[in-house]
Design brief:
Length: 163
C-alpha cells in the first residue's frame, strides 16, 4: 500500500474520531449545563434568554395544560449577551486547540518519518513551531476575552476581576 495513501487514511480517521466522539458523548448527557439565570438550561453555543412567567391582563399567571407556568422567552439582557459570547469563544477555542493538536501529531509523524531527509525534518520543525505559536495565541485570546468580560462586571467565567 502506498505510504501517502496510508497517511491520508490515518488523517481522515483521526479527524472523524476527534469530531464525532465528543458529539456522541455529549448527546448522552441530557443537554446543557443547567443553572444560570432563572434555571435556564444552556445547551450548545446559544440558549434561551432568562424566561419570565406569562401573566394575563389581571396579573395572574397563565399555566400550561400540565399545570406548569407558561414561560415567555427572548427578553435578553446584558448578562445573556455576555454568556452567549463566552459560550462562542469557549467553543471556538476548543475547536482551535483540537485542530492544533492534530497539526502537532501530524508534524510529529512527519518528523519521525523523515528519516535522513533534512528537508522534511525542517518542514516538520516549522509545523511544530507554528502549532505551538498558534496554541499560545489561542490561549492569549481566550484570556483577553475572559478579562474583558470580567472587567465589564459580568458574573460569568472562571476569572473574577473586581476593579
Amino acid at each position: 500500500m502506498n505510504f501517502r495513501l496510508l497517511k491520508i487514511i490515518y488523517a481522515n480517521f483521526l479527524l472523524l474520531f476527534i469530531f464525532t466522539v465528543p458529539v456522541l458523548v455529549l448527546a448522552q448527557s441530557g443537554g446543557g449545563t443547567g443553572g444560570g439565570t432563572g434555571g435556564v438550561t444552556k445547551s450548545g453555543i446559544t440558549y434561551d434568554c432568562a424566561p419570565k412567567a406569562a401573566v394575563d391582563s389581571a396579573g395572574n399567571p397563565i399555566n400550561n395544560s400540565d399545570g406548569s407556568p407558561m414561560m415567555i422567552y427572548g427578553e435578553c439582557g446584558f448578562q445573556d449577551l455576555v454568556d452567549a459570547t463566552l459560550h462562542a469563544v469557549n467553543y471556538a477555542s476548543a475547536i482551535a486547540i483540537a485542530f492544533t493538536t492534530v497539526v502537532i501529531v501530524y508534524a510529529g509523524f512527519n518528523y519521525m518519518a523523515s528519516g535522513s531527509n533534512p528537508g522534511k525534518r525542517k518542514e516538520a520543525n516549522g509545523m511544530l513551531t507554528k502549532a505551538v505559536i498558534g496554541i499560545a495565541l489561542i490561549v492569549g485570546a481566550w484570556l483577553i476575552v475572559q478579562f474583558v468580560v470580567s472587567a465589564l462586571g459580568a458574573d460569568t467565567g472562571p476569572i473574577k476581576f473586581n476593579p
